[in-house]
Protein 1
Amino acid sequence: MAGWMAGYGDYKGRSNTTFMRVGAADTLRTSSSLSLLPAMNQTYADNQLVRIREQAALYMCACPAQVCASVVSMRKLFEYQMRCLDATDTDRAVHERIATAATLAHAELERCLTDILHLEGWDMETLEMPPQLQKRLLDSIDKCDV
């Protein structure tokens, strides 16, 4: 376990208990019981991700849209793993591992999206692309029409 969670702060307790820090959520695990995986924290609601993707598509700016699509994909992967945890012990371990990876990737992708939106100057309340970026993208399209 230390290999795949290196850098995420594994701490061995007494007997067979492992305390893991996964992002901002703490999880207590024992080998004799089903792990209590934290719920996936979400910075952006689904409708906000749709809004960003619409804005990005409107002005043909694919980067924010691609990150949004990856965030949604991690949410779906996590939800799928949560539905599959009830099988055998081996299946449970596999699905827990995938769910943990999806949680970590999701958190990093949401931080990346926030960084991108700030770097590009998006309005964080309305999630609209800034006018200067819209104009630059529209100008580049006009140049292609010549």
Protein 2
Amino acid sequence: MRTALLWLLLIVGMAHGNTFDELLAQAEEGDAQAQAEVGQALLTGNGVEKDESAALEWIERAAAEENARGLFLLATLISVGAHPERPADEAIPLLKRAAELGDGFAQLDYGTGILEGEVPAVTLRQGVRFVRLAAEGGVIEAQRNLGLYYGGGSPHFPVDHIQSMRWFTAAAEQGDAIAQVNLARMLQFGRGEIEPNAARALELYEAAATQGQREAQSSLGMIFLRGEDVPRDILRGAELLEAAAWQGESEAQWAIGQLYAPGGIEAIQDPSAAYFWLYLAQMNSYPEASESLAAVAPLLSEEARATIEATATELHPAMVHGNRPSSG
């Protein structure tokens, strides 16, 4: 079971706009769904002071009433060792029951567990069925995953570009940046029977880039830099590429390094900046980085290169995780 799902679920606000006090009143009257949501809120301190002990009690009460969300929360807490009084082998049956009762997050977690071989099942078709149920119920991650699976990302799904586009579209329409950039790529280049649609691809890249999605920023930056289906805008392209580069996107690091290098944009040529970005691109194994770096290296002293390399090495770990270092 994947712990990320629990925290994805826990950060959402109160269901139906209810305040914590309203939910607590409903929970005390025996409403199992409210009991689960009270437990969820107490786990994170969402609208109330955090209290893990009380949270467990409310979640247990909801699960005892066969509430799907309560069962899912209980299963996940057991699986990550946050409920030491319950043995780990109780997690899967609880998760399965939550999925059967219709909890979308449970369906995604249980179905994915089957497909990845983490959860025993009679057939892999059970995994497919539960992931589809979660996607049809509007769970964004399930929709995005189906887009990836049908696009060739899983041996358990046939390659079907129409289905891939369908599910990426569903997640993209809910604002999911990863789905937006994947759908944009399909429409930018075309895929199988999917015809290219440059205008729609640009809209999707813009939407994802606005959310800070680094692959979208990089792709959009290259589009503006080259003037592909848009008026060429080198400065806008450079801004987008640098934003992606600071988040560790290797293609953007290489591209912005090329812009700073001799032969790039004359107004911003800077061998030190070029060496910095190309060195980072090389650290991230970008294929053309080493050759580009070798071309810039003779323009700097050995001492200057060593200083830049030390700075890049220090900043690199934060960039790998998509974080712009404060010293950037």
Protein 3
Amino acid sequence: MKYSVLILVLLSFTPVVGQDGGNWIHSFDMSTFDEKGRGSAEVTVVGSSPSCFSQEITANVVDGVLEFQLFEEDHRLCHLDLRYEPLSIEYQFDEAPRLVQALRVFTDNGRSDGIVVTTRGPYILEELVPHIPGDSDLSRIFDSGDLVNVFRGGEFEDDLVGNSTWFSGDWNGDGEFDSSDFVLAFNAGQFTRSRSRAVSIPEPSMLLSFTFAAIGIVLHAVRGQRR
């Protein structure tokens, strides 16, 4: 009985095993993006005490891959530390990531300005492709919340050339947010009224205005193409 209790206690400290052998990640939570491409994430890792593991975390998107780098002191005692501490980071990107991964970076001081001794990974955390046309916040759903986002950005058919991103309404990749993006999004047939993640949305009357405005733009664009 005594040994059974000990085994149960040890199992309770067992971390969540990620893909590619990333058993150092206990949990991962990434927010949706706003119209400026701003988001945040929280990574909980094993052995993340301030004196040992991951004193710094960075995020960057390169070629569609969002990579979190967690910096760790270069000593083996960290692997015996079973405490869970959340590491939070806020970021802003112009490019919608298709893949999220994490990389362990061992340095001589546990920070990004230190000398890199070795790295481990990367470990895949989440795949975000294929992107749904219209899903500006990357919630995996195209709904009224996305319309609110892009209209809030104020870039629809503006005078600036090539200033729009996926987050602000450029879903066809031409650098502009115009009626052709709405045509692409609604023709894909993925629009839904539901909202799976909690977001801040305006009053229902304003939400309906955004929705009807978007539908009107699409109908006008389709009629223009038929002429």
